[in-house]
Amino acid sequence: MSDYNQKIVEDYWSRADASASDRNFYCYPVIRSHSCKLIFGEADASRRDWCQYWTVEKYLKEIIPVKKCLSICCGFGEIERMLARLGVADHILGMDVAPGAIEKARERALAEGLGNIEYQVADLNAEELPVEEYDIIWANGALHHIRELDGVVAKLFRALKPGGYLVSNEYVGPDYQQLPRRQQEIVNAVKHLLPMELRSADDGRRPSLLSKIARRLRRKSFRLREQDEAIYARLWKMPTIDHFKATDPSECVRSSQIIPTLHNHFDSVTVRYFDGSILFYALDPVFYANFDGHKPTHRRLLELLFELERFYIDSGEMQSDNAHIICRKNP
Question: What is the mean pLDDT of residues 274-281?
Answer without folding.
Answer: 98
